[in-house]
Amino acid sequence: MVASYETLVRSFTKLYRYQHLSAIAAWDQAAMMPQRGNDARGAALAELAVLMHETLTAPQLAAALTAAEGEVTAPVDRASVREMKRQWQSANLLPASLVEQKSLAGSRCEHAWRTQRKANDWAGFLANWKPVVACARQEATLLAEATGLSLYDALVDRFEPGMTAAVIEPMFAELKHWLPPLVQEVLAKQRTEEVLQPTGTFPVEAQRALGLELMSLLGFDFEAGRLDVSTHPFCGGVAEDVRITTRYRTDDFVQAMMGIVHETGHARYEQRLPREWVHLPLGQARSMGIHESQSLSFEMQLGRSRPFLQLIAPLVAKHLGAQPAFAADNLARIYTRVKPGFIRVDADELTYPLHVILRFEIERALVEGDIEPEDVPALWAEKMQAYLGIDTRGNYTDGCLQDIHWTDGAFGYFPSYTLGAMYAAQFFATIRAQVPDLDARIAAGDLAPIFTWLDANLWRQASRWTTPELVERATGAKLSAVHFERHLRARYL
Amino acid sequence: MVASYETLVRSFTKLYRYQHLSAIAAWDQAAMMPQRGNDARGAALAELAVLMHETLTAPQLAAALTAAEGEVTAPVDRASVREMKRQWQSANLLPASLVEQKSLAGSRCEHAWRTQRKANDWAGFLANWKPVVACARQEATLLAEATGLSLYDALVDRFEPGMTAAVIEPMFAELKHWLPPLVQEVLAKQRTEEVLQPTGTFPVEAQRALGLELMSLLGFDFEAGRLDVSTHPFCGGVAEDVRITTRYRTDDFVQAMMGIVHETGHARYEQRLPREWVHLPLGQARSMGIHESQSLSFEMQLGRSRPFLQLIAPLVAKHLGAQPAFAADNLARIYTRVKPGFIRVDADELTYPLHVILRFEIERALVEGDIEPEDVPALWAEKMQAYLGIDTRGNYTDGCLQDIHWTDGAFGYFPSYTLGAMYAAQFFATIRAQVPDLDARIAAGDLAPIFTWLDANLWRQASRWTTPELVERATGAKLSAVHFERHLRARYL
Question: What is the ipTM of this complex?
Answer without folding.
Answer: 0.88
